[in-house]
């Protein structure tokens, strides 16, 4: 699996960017350093000017890759979900028991993320922290319907729909498969956020992870 992942190019909708950042040294530096800077100061305080100062490049050079910082965040989110989808597919490909496959999928999308050293310019562990904190900003805005029509969220939806298929394989009679799948994928981000910042309103902690919670949830919910 690791060998295959190392040779796969993560695909992101070309409408999200002006120029593919994966095609140049500067583009990769923009992605690498934007992740670190957003993690350090937060998306609200993040600007292309600050990023330009960090990488020693003109602000205008960043606009050659991304129209605005929202599109950059959508790009980072799309890259993350595409990477997550590859992990999900390969991790479950040879599991034939439907419930074991679903539990493995839940583990993949809810577990703590470690850096994948095969992607030198992207620290997935830090990117995961950004997704936990900032991902809803890609959806909760006035342009969400137009961006959805443009296919900006197709990879995210594809991850959820893969989970839907697995849920239906476990229990074809369960009528809320889509709601359950989207709750697992996005709810796990929220549980990680609560675990890190609002500990008094979640049962997740250093011992009990969101993975434990969601596996318990599907075991209880999908009983035939």
From TrEMBL:
<dbReference type="InterPro" id="IPR009057">
    <property type="entry name" value="Homeodomain-like_sf"/>
</dbReference>
<dbReference type="Pfam" id="PF00440">
    <property type="entry name" value="TetR_N"/>
</dbReference>
<keyword id="KW-0238">DNA-binding</keyword>
<dbReference type="InterPro" id="IPR001647">
    <property type="entry name" value="HTH_TetR"/>
</dbReference>
<protein>
    <submittedName>
        <fullName>TetR/AcrR family transcriptional regulator</fullName>
    </submittedName>
</protein>
<feature type="domain" description="HTH tetR-type">
    <location>
        <begin position="24"/>
        <end position="84"/>
    </location>
</feature>
<feature type="DNA-binding region" description="H-T-H motif">
    <location>
        <begin position="47"/>
        <end position="66"/>
    </location>
</feature>
């Amino acid at each position: 699996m690791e060998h295959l992942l190392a040779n796969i190019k993560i695909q992101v909708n070309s409408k999200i960017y002006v120029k593919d950042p994966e095609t140049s040294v500067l583009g990769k530096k923009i992605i690498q350093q934007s992740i670190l800077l957003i993690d350090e100061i937060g998306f609200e305080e993040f600007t292309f000017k600050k990023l330009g100062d960090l990488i020693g490049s003109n602000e205008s050079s960043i606009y050659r890759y991304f129209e605005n910082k929202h599109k950059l965040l959508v790009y980072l989110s799309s890259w993350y979900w595409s990477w997550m989808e590859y992990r999900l597919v390969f991790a479950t490909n040879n599991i034939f028991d439907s419930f074991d496959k679903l539990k493995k999928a839940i583990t993949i999308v809810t577990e703590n993320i470690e850096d994948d050293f095969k992607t030198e310019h992207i620290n997935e562990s830090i990117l995961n922290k950004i997704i936990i904190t900032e991902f809803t900003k890609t959806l909760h805005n006035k342009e969400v319907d137009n961006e959805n029509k443009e296919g900006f969220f197709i990879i995210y939806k594809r991850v959820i729909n893969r989970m839907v298929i697995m849920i239906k394989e476990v229990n074809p009679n369960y009528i809320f498969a889509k709601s359950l799948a989207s709750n697992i994928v996005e709810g796990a981000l929220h549980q990680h956020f609560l675990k890190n910042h609002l500990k008094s309103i979640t049962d997740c902690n250093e011992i009990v992870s969101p993975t434990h919670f969601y596996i318990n949830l599907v075991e209880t919910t999908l009983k035939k």
